[in-house]
Structures are given as structure tokens and as C-alpha cells.
Design a protein that fits this description.
This protein is an alpha/beta fold and 567 residues long. The chain has helices at 12-23, 44-59, 78-91, 106-118, 129-134, 153-165, 214-225, 240-248, 274-282, 297-303, 307-317, 328-342, 551-559; strands spanning 31-34, 63-68, 100-101, 122-125, 174-177, 192-196, 210-212, 229-233, 258-262, 344-346, 348-349, 352-357, 366-371, 381-386, 389-393, 413-416, 421-429, 435-442, 460-461, 463-465, 470-477, 503-511, 523-526, 530-534, 541-546. It folds into 3 domains: 12-262, HUPs (Rossmann fold), CATH 3.40.50.620; 274-344 and 472-559, Beta Barrel (Ribosomal Protein L25, Chain P), CATH 2.40.240; 348-462, Beta Barrel (Ribosomal Protein L25, Chain P), CATH 2.40.240. The strands form 6 sheets. Strands 10-23-24-25-21-22-11 form a 7-stranded mixed β-sheet, covered by helices on one side. The protein has a 7-stranded mixed β-sheet with strand order 19-16-17-18-12-15-20, with no helix packed on it. Bound molecules: adenosine-5'-triphosphate and magnesium ion (MG).
């Protein structure tokens, strides 16, 4: 788009980029990046950063690279690299090939590190990590100098080169920036730049046994790439002076990137930390990173969240400078809104009870016309078989109904969706007194659910023809964490609030025959039961993506706030 036109959804970051474009800062160039560490798969919080960075590049005619911040080979893996790429593409974004890597800059970073050593601005320290951290001081107390801080430039250069050459064991020495151990900001108290790790790296193999810290790599990698607006989350604002310090003391190839921080996305009833995910997956508390209960993009994809709904949600919540938590019901609202418009309607009975229509001819089958999506006439219609023996939802029948129950009961008439009106004439029970079958009669004059005599029936229920039904498994999901804020208080362990009933598998569902062979990932609405997604791996397993009830609208109503309209 034209940078002089106001961008949509103006927020403080867009205002800033707009002003830079207007003032000719960076010669009007806009370049962003999305910089994940390949130590896990992406989650919905990352989606917010992705939409922001790729969105800015798109709106301002700029470039957004994908860059792996791969400075810590101990935690990283190539499978996460490909998984991250796959997730970003799924979300609907592309980047200029090839994917970039912080590790491609290892040699340049090393050269710059030697430059700092030569300027007397970095030194090799023999203290171990614990001692370094103990000597760093606190916000109210200054740190203490390491006894190795006064090494000569020559000695430092020699030791640093020998670190690279592999002469020392892991953690035996580190390289630290020589800034100020009494600096008001503890981040600037001689931060570590390099550590020794004799491990192979997924991109550089055995080329290195010293690895840069994230802090030492981040700003310089941005500078090498030509990033103009280096957007990151709020907790990095205390580190910005350090990144600036590094950039100030180096001979940069081009513009100095401008870091801007925004508040990370948080959602109720979830946790967004790879540490938590690794524990969930590692201890088998969920069925892998793509478990439909996981707030990962692959989990949400498997559950049936459309990428468009996630993008609309991210656009709606926008970016802000202060922390807030969004209700998970808001995300579901966007999912439901998208699926309402796109998902094909089908009938499925999750907890079936048999219904025999006594006055319906034994071998007759009628193929009735049913609408595929009332919101989208272009989806057309399909034929649904109707016969003498049907299944209905067992909860749609009550032997002794209370006043407000309008569905099927002895002597009561209801409408079968797309079919006829039926009346319950009798009930068959097993030896334990459990209802196992309903005997009903139908009114042939009510084809298509019409009532030519104008009589009223209060309830329409869904059904499936028993001889035509296909069997399926349905999985119903609850919140992963029972508490809205699982880590809400200091010292609280989110795992204490893991919901033991977050998934309920219903084995004996009966589905209309159009659902046979539904492909993995197919999204449907089971009428009256919710939106469902066919599992990507197991055929005839349906995940309930989201229920039909708009809980967000209810929350808003209680708070007397307007319900947002999805775009
Ligand atoms: P974790 O702390 O769980 O390891 P991370 O933030 O370190 O996650 P990265 O791979 O470093 O994960 O994140 C890549 C980018 O995504 C960073 O720029 C980060 O700021 C952004 N990001 C991460 N989590 C969120 C979030 N919840 N909301 C918005 N942006 C996020
Ligand atoms: Mg990180």
C-alpha cells in the first residue's frame, strides 16, 4: 500500500512506522522480521507477533523475513525449524526465501566480539555461571567485579581465540562485555556474550564450540539483515539499552534497527510458554504438540480453528503497550463466526437412542433434501436417507419431562429436521429399567416438517437413519486448565489446575452417510451439537472445535459491552 495513506487499525506501532516513513527515516524503508527460536512449535501468542510483523511489511510495502534465532543448540532442533515454517504458511504468510538464521552470522558476531575485546570492552571470565549471577547484584544493590575483569587485552584475545579453538571444556570460561558492574540496570552489568558448549548445531554442525548468547546475537543479526523496526515483546524493554550499547560500539554495515516493544498475548485458561508445553508433552499429559487442547498453532489446526479466524482475532485484539489477558471465549467467538459462514451442516447423533416409526413402511427409504449451509446458498443441498428405524440424541427424550422441556416425551410430538413430525407412542426398557427404544408414529401429511393444519410443535430435533448410519468417534473438549489464570499468583503451580476432564471421547456416535470418508481436516457443523473437525490422522474421529453457544456474547452481555463483529 501507499505509505502516505493511513494504515488500517492504527496502533502505536503503526503510528511510529508511519511517522518514520513520513520523515524518511531509514530512507522510507520498512523491514521487519519474525524471529522464533526453533526450540518448540509456535503458539497463538506467536500468531499475534506474526500477524503484526508480516502485516506491517504488507501495509507499508516493506519486507518481513523469517529468521530462526538459533543461538542455543542444546534446546533446538531442525524439526522445529520445518514445523515453524509450516505453521506460518498455514497461517497465511510467506517470506522472501530463504529462511534466515542467526547462526549464519556466527562468524561476523565472532569478528565483532574480537573487536570489542580489542577495544577493551569485553573480557574472558573464569567464574562459573552461579558465581557470575550471584555477583550481579540486585536492582537496589550494585554488582561486584570479577577478579578476571582486569585481564589485559592481549590475554583476553588469546583466551577468547583458544575458547573458539576448543581448548576448554564446557562452561570453563565465558566472554563478557565490560560495561559497568554498578549500572542501574542489572542487564548492563557485564553480560555474558559467549559460552562454551561442545555440542553440534542443527545448522552449523561441528563448526563451533562457543555459542553467542541471545542478547549478543539479537540486535546485530537485525542490523546485518537490514531490519528497520525490530518488534519484540515488552519484557525486552529492559534489555534495549544493552542492545543499543552493543550497536553503539560496533561498526555497523547499515541502519541501526529501532526496537519497539508491545505486550504479549495472554489468554485465560491457557499457558503460553514453551517450558510448560515441553512438560505437558514430555510427561504425556497431552498427546503431543498438536494435541487439540494445546494452544499451539498445530494443536488449534488439528482442533479445526481456521487460520482466517486466528488472523481476525489477532487483528481485533490489536497491539498495546500494557499487559492484558484476553478471554479464550473471544478467540472462540471468532472461530465460531468463521465456521458459521463456511462449515457444511450435517446431522450426527452423539449419544444415540433407537426410534422405531411403527406406521412407516418396513422397507421404505426416502431421500430428503437438506440444506448444506443456510449462511451460504452456494454450498447447495444434499439428500439424507429417512427410514423406519432412526437414532435420535438420548438427551432429546425424557420419560417425565419438567415443564420447560419441549422435546420428545411420551405422548409428545416433535419435528424431525427436514423430515416429519413424530409422536412418541411407547417406551421399551431393558431389565434394569433403562429406556432402550422409543416407539413412535409419524404423520405422513407433515413431509419436510410442514404443518398444513397450522398446529404448533415447539421443538425440532436432529436424527440419523439407523441402517444408513456410519459409526464415528467424537471428542469433546474442556479447558486445558480449570483456572482462568493458572499462574495468577506468585508461587502457584499451573499444573495443579490441569483439567483432568479436558477431553471426553464418545465412541458410539451415529453419523449421516454423507460423513463417510470425510477427509482429515474437514470442518462441519453437526446440527445442534457444535462445529467439528475430522482428525488429520484417524478417519472418522471428530474433534469438537467449538460449541454453538456464543459464550463471549454472554460474557459481554453480563458486562454490558457490545459484541465485536468479526470481519
Ligand atoms: P518462550 O518464552 O515460551 O520460549 P519465546 O517468546 O521465547 O517463548 P520465541 O521463539 O523467542 O519464543 O518468540 C518469537 C517471537 O514471538 C518473539 O519476537 C516474541 O516476542 C514473540 N512472542 C512470543 N510469545 C508471544 C506472545 N505470547 N505474544 C506475542 N508475541 C509473542
Ligand atoms: Mg525467546
Amino acid at each position: 500500500m501507499n505509505p502516505s495513506a493511513p494504515p488500517p487499525n492504527v496502533d502505536f506501532i503503526r503510528e511510529r512506522v508511519q511517522a518514520d516513513a513520513h520523515d524518511g527515516t531509514f530512507n522510507g524503508r520498512v523491514q521487519t522480521r519474525f524471529p522464533p527460536e526453533p526450540n518448540g512449535y509456535l503458539h497463538i501468542g506467536h500468531a499475534k507477533a506474526i500477524c503484526l510483523n508480516f502485516g506491517l511489511a504488507e501495509e507499508f510495502g516493506g519486507v518481513c523475513n523469517l529468521r530462526m534465532d538459533d543461538t542455543n543448540p542444546m534446546a533446538e532442533d531442525e524439526s522445529f525449524v520445518t514445523g515453524i515454517e509450516e505453521d506460518i504458511r498455514w497461517l497465511g504468510f510467506t517470506w522472501p526465501a530463504p529462511t534466515k538464521y542467526a547462526s549464519s552470522a556466527f562468524e561476523q558476531l565472532y569478528i565483532w566480539a574480537e573487536e570489542l575485546v580489542t577495544k577493551g570492552l569485553a573480557y574472558v571470565d573464569d567464574l562459573d555461571a552461579e558465581t557470575i549471577s550471584a555477583q550481579r547484584g540486585t536492582f537496589s544493590e550494585p554488582g561486584h567485579d570479577s577478579p578476571f575483569r582486569s585481564r589485559s587485552i592481549e590475554e583476553n584475545l588469546d583466551l577468547f581465540r583458544r575458547m573458539r579453538a576448543g581448548e576448554f571444556v564446557d562452561s570453563e570460561k565465558v566472554l563478557r562485555a565490560k560495561i559497568d558492574m554498578a549500572h542501574a540496570n542489572p542487564v548492563l552489568r557485564d553480560p555474558v556474550m559467549y559460552r562454551i558448549r561442545h555440542v553440534a548445531h542443527h545448522q552449523t554442525g561441528d563448526a563451533w564450540c562457543i555459542y553467542p548468547t541471545y542478547d549478543w546475537a539479537h540486535g546485530q543479526t537485525d542490523a546485518i539483515e537490514g531490519v528497520t523496526h525490530s518488534i519484540c515483546t515488552l519484557e525486552f524493554d529492559v534489555r534495549r539499552p544493552l542492545y543499543d550499547w552493543y550497536l553503539d560500539h560496533l561498526d555497523l554495515p547499515g541502519d541501526r534497527p529501532q526496537q519497539i516493544e508491545f505486550a504479549r498475548l495472554k489468554l485465560t485458561h491457557t499457558m503460553m510458554s514453551k517450558r510448560i508445553f515441553l512438560k505437558l508433552v514430555g510427561e504425556g499429559l497431552v498427546d503431543g504438540w498438536d494435541d487439540p487442547r494445546m494452544p499451539t498453532l498445530r494443536g488449534m489446526r488439528r482442533l479445526g480453528y481456521p487460520a482466517a479466524a486466528i488472523r481476525a482475532f489477532c487483528a481485533h485484539v490489536g497491539v498495546a503497550k500494557n499487559y492484558s489477558v484476553n478471554e479464550i471465549e473471544l478467540l472462540e467467538h471468532f472461530v465460531r463466526d468463521e465456521l458459521n459462514r463456511t462449515a457444511t451442516r450435517r446431522m450426527a447423533v452423539l449419544n444415540p437412542i433407537r426410534v422405531v416409526i411403527e406406521n412407516y413402511p418396513d422397507d421404505q427409504v426416502e431421500w430428503l433434501e437438506a440444506i448444506n449451509n443456510p449462511e451460504d446458498p452456494s454450498q447447495g443441498t444434499r439428500k439424507v436417507p429417512f427410514s423406519k428405524v432412526l437414532y435420535i440424541e438420548s438427551e432429546d427424550f425424557m420419560q417425565d419431562p419438567p415443564k420447560q422441556f419441549y422435546r420428545l416425551a411420551p405422548g409428545r410430538e416433535v419435528r424431525l429436521r427436514y423430515a416429519y413430525l413424530i409422536t412418541c407412542a411407547g417406551v421399551i426398557k431393558d431389565a434394569d429399567g433403562q429406556v432402550v427404544e422409543l416407539r413412535c408414529t409419524y404423520d405422513p401429511a407433515t413431509a419436510g416438517g410442514a404443518t398444513p393444519d397450522g398446529r404448533k410443535v415447539k421443538s425440532t430435533i436432529h436424527w440419523v437413519s439407523a441402517p444408513h448410519a456410519v459409526a464415528g468417534e467424537v471428542r469433546l473438549y474442556g479447558r486445558l486448565f480449570t483456572e482462568a489464570y493458572p499462574d495468577g499468583e506468585e508461587g502457584r503451580d499451573p499444573f495443579d489446575f490441569l483439567n483432568p476432564d479436558s477431553v471426553i471421547a464418545v465412541g458410539g456416535a451415529k453419523l449421516e452417510p454423507a460423513l463417510a470418508d470425510a477427509p482429515g481436516g474437514a470442518l462441519v457443523q453437526f446440527e445442534r451439537m457444535g462445529y467439528f473437525c475430522v482428525d488429520a490422522r484417524s478417519p472418522m474421529v471428530f474433534h469438537r472445535t467449538v460449541g454453538l453457544k456464543d459464550e463471549w456474547a454472554n460474557i459481554q452481555k453480563r458486562a454490558q459491552k457490545p459484541v465485536p463483529k468479526a470481519k
